[in-house]
Amino acid sequence: MTLSIIAAINQKRGIGYQNKLLYWLPNDLKRFKALTTGHTIIMGRHTFESLPKGALPNRRNVVLSRQELHFEGAECFHTLADALHTCKEDEEVFIIGGATLYTEALPLADRLYLTEVDDEQAPADAFFPEVSPELWKEKSRECHPTDEKHLYSYSFVDYERTQK
After folding, report:
1. From residue 10, how far is each of 61, 111, 129, 153, 155 by CA, in Å?
2. What is the pLDDT of residues 52-69, one digit of tens each?
3. How far apart are CA 131 and CA 18, in angstroms?
4. Share of the chain above pLDDT 90, in %
5. Which of 29, 60, 86, 105 pairs with 78 at a CA distance of 20 to 30 A?
6. Locate the DHFR domain: which residues (predicted)?
7. HSE value, Cβ hemisphere, 13 Å, CA-based, for 38
8. Phi-psi category of 18—alpha, beta or left, where left has phi over 0 and alpha has psi -120 to 50?
9. In order of start, what are the domains of the chain with their CATH numbers?
10. What are the beta bridge partners of residue 44?
11. What's the rounded Cα separation, in Å, for the pair 74 and 152?
């Protein structure tokens, strides 16, 4: 199994504020959909609750919660380890948030798909963990300027783990 993390982060590693995304970047949302469709996505309860239409279509939605809860269109597990044990050996699994789950999954992850937003002003109360250059190597970077649909310039940056 390949464990991947996908997130949009700003220059201070901010990812969210009051259980909402910091940025509305249509191209980031398209990339997210293209990468995760057909795969298992694992998220925390708050992330699932923040999805405007509930479970994301054409993906196996997995929610982590310590409580015995039912999430329409999703499977629920108490721990990341329990969820990962149900994944196929040959599949790519995506961690999609939030901050606590990113921190827990980062030491296990093989790939990072980050959208790095050129902003540090947006208020944030949830943050992505630090990405150590000793453990992660940048594989590709695709830079995009601001335009009529994107108020901030941003880069799609893919990393691969160099060592565990």
Report:
1. 26, 19, 12, 11, 10
2. 999 999 999 999 999 888
3. 23
4. 96
5. 29
6. 2-161
7. 4
8. left
9. 2-161 (3.40.430.10)
10. 64
11. 33
- Measuring CA to CA, which residue among 77, 36, 71 is closest to residue 57? 36
Q: Which two tokens stand for residue 14?
A: 């901010």
The CA distances from residue 65 to 83, 100, 103, 108, 131, in Å, are 11, 12, 16, 19, 25
Peptide bond into 54 cis (omega under 30): no
The overall pTM is greater than 0.85: yes
For residue 88, the number of C-alpha atoms closer than 13 Å in the C-beta half-sphere is: 7
pLDDT (0 to 100) of residue 68: 84
Q: Which amino acid is at 50?
A: S
Residues 6+ apart with CB under 8 A from 138: 157, 158, 159
Count of H-run helices and E-run strands, the chain:
4, 11
> In this predicted structure, what is the pLDDT of residue 69?
87
